[in-house]
Design goal:
Largest sheet: 7 strands, mixed
CATH class of the largest domain: Alpha Beta
Radius of gyration: 20 Å
Number of strands: 15
Number of helices: 10
Bound molecules: NADP nicotinamide-adenine-dinucleotide phosphate
Helix content: 25-40%
Distance between the termini: 14 Å
Structural class: alpha/beta
CATH architecture of the largest domain: Alpha-Beta Complex
Length: 332
C-alpha cells in the first residue's frame, strides 16, 4: 500500500493532565539516511511520556515533539544503509519521540526483529524497558549469574522486565511493590520474594530474606529516603543503579558505607544517548535477549491496550498506578 502524505498522531497541545493529549493530522515523516519508516501497529506508553506531557521532559534536539518512545510495526520505506532491513520486515524500535502516530521513523540500528511467538502488541511494549534494563542492570551494574538483585517498582513496565531479565540471567531476584496483588504478580514473574512497601519495611524484609546478607545490585526509580536504605542493604562491592527519583533527587548519602563496602552508585537516562550508543545496546539485546523472548523464557507483560485516539485514557490509566507491566496503544 502506498505511504500517504499525512497521518493521525497524538500531540501535546499544552503542558497538563491527560486531556492535553489530542489527535491531530501531521505530515508522514521521511526517513533520513540510516533510518527506516515504520507503519506503526503498536506504541508503548511509558512514564517518561507522562513527564513530557506535564512539561518536565522536553524531547532532545532533533526529536519529534509527538510523544512515544517505542513502536512495533512493519517497515514501509528505508533510506541509505539500513543494515539489511527491508520493506515489509516486522520490527520493534526504540525511538527518541514520535511513537504515538500511524508512521514513525527509527534509526536502523535501534530496530530489532519481532521474535517468533511475540505479537505486534506485545512487541510495542518491549524496546523502552528492555533497552533501559539491559543498559543499567547488565552494562552498568554488571549483574552476574548467582548474584542477588532487588528492583523497586517491581510491577511497573521497567520492574516486570527487570525481574524477568535478571532471573533469566541466573540471579536471585527480589522486588518491592505497592499492593499485595502487585507483589504476587512480581513473584509469578520470577521474584523469590516481593515486599509490599506500604505494609513492611523493605530493608528489613530483604535483609531477612537474604539471611542478613543483603543484595549485590539494586535498580531504583524512587530515590528520596530509599537511597540511604538501598546503600545499607547492599553487600560489599554492591551496585546501586538509579533510573528515576519518584520521591526526590536530593538525598543524603553516608559516604562511610560507600567506602567501607566499596559500593558503586551509578545511573543513566536513555533518551538523550546517541544512536551509536543505543544501537550498541540493541546489539546486546539481539544476541542475548531475543533468544529468551523467542523461547518464551521472558515475555512482554501487557496490562491493557487503548486505541491511538484514546491516548489520554491510556495516560490516565498509567497514572492510576493499578497496572502490572505495560500499557500499549493499538493501531489498526
Ligand atoms: N532512566 C531511564 O533511562 C528510564 C527509562 C525508562 C523509564 N524510567 C523511569 O522508570 C520508572 C518506571 O517507568 P515505567 O514506564 O515502567 O513506569 P510505570 O509502569 O508507570 O511504573 C511506575 C511505578 O512506580 C511506582 N511508584 C510510584 N510512586 C512511587 C513511590 N512514591 N514509591 C515507590 N514506588 C512508586 C508504582 O508502583 P507501586 O504501585 O508499586 O508503588 C509504579 O508501578 C519511571 O520513574 C520512569 O521515569 C527511566
Amino acid at each position: 500500500m502506498p505511504v500517504p502524505s499525512t497521518m493521525t498522531a497524538i500531540e501535546i497541545v499544552k503542558p497538563g493532565g491527560p486531556e492535553v493529549l489530542e489527535p491531530t493530522t501531521r505530515p508522514v515523516p521521511t526517513a533520513q539516511a540510516g533510518e527506516v519508516l515504520i507503519r506503526v501497529r503498536a506504541a508503548g506508553v511509558n512514564r517518561p511520556d507522562v513527564l513530557q506531557r506535564q512539561g518536565g521532559y522536553a524531547p532532545p534536539p532533533g526529536a519529534s515533539d509527538i510523544p512515544g518512545l517505542e513502536v512495533a510495526g512493519e517497515i514501509v520505506a528505508t533510506a541509505g544503509d539500513v543494515l539489511g532491513l527491508t520493506v515489509g520486515d516486522r520490527v520493534m524500535a526504540l525511538v527518541a519521540g514520535g511513537g504515538y502516530a500511524e508512521y514513525c521513523v527509527a534509526p536502523a540500528g535501534q530496530c530489532l526483529p519481532i521474535p517468533g511467538g511475540v505479537s505486534v502488541i506485545e512487541a510495542g511494549g518491549i524496546p523502552e524497558t528492555f533497552f533501559t534494563v539491559w543498559t543499567n542492570v547488565f552494562d552498568r551494574a554488571a549483574l552476574g549469574h548467582g548474584e542477588s538483585f532487588l528492583v523497586h517498582g517491581g510491577a511497573s513496565g521497567i520492574g516486570t522486565t527487570a525481574i524477568q531479565l535478571a532471573r533469566a540471567a541466573g540471579a536471585r531476584v527480589f522486588a518491592t511493590a505497592g499492593t499485595g496483588e502487585k507483589c504476587r504478580a512480581c513473584m509469578a514473574l520470577g521474584a523469590e520474594q516481593a515486599v509490599n512497601y506500604r505494609e513492611a519495611d523493605f530493608e528489613q524484609s530483604i535483609r531477612e530474606a537474604t539471611q542478613g546478607a543483603g543484595v549485590d545490585v539494586i535498580l531504583d526509580m524512587v530515590g528520596g529516603d530509599y537511597t540511604a536504605r538501598n546503600l545499607a542493604l547492599l553487600r560489599e562491592e554492591g551496585r546501586l543503579v538509579q533510573i528515576a527519583f519518584l520521591k526526590g533527587s536530593k538525598v543524603q548519602v553516608d559516604l562511610n558505607a560507600v567506602m567501607r563496602k566499596r559500593l558503586t552508585l551509578t545511573g543513566s537516562t536513555l533518551r538523550p544517548r546517541t544512536v551509536a550508543q543505543k544501537s550498541a545496546i540493541a546489539d546486546k539485546l539481539r544476541s542475548r535477549v531475543l533468544p529468551w523472548l523467542e523461547a518464551g523464557k521472558v515475555r512482554s507483560v501487557v496490562h491493557a491496550t487503548y486505541p491511538l485516539r484514546a491516548a489520554a485514557a491510556a495516560h490516565a490509566a498509567l497514572e492510576a498506578d493499578r497496572h502490572v507491566g505495560k500499557i500499549v496503544l493499538e493501531l489498526g
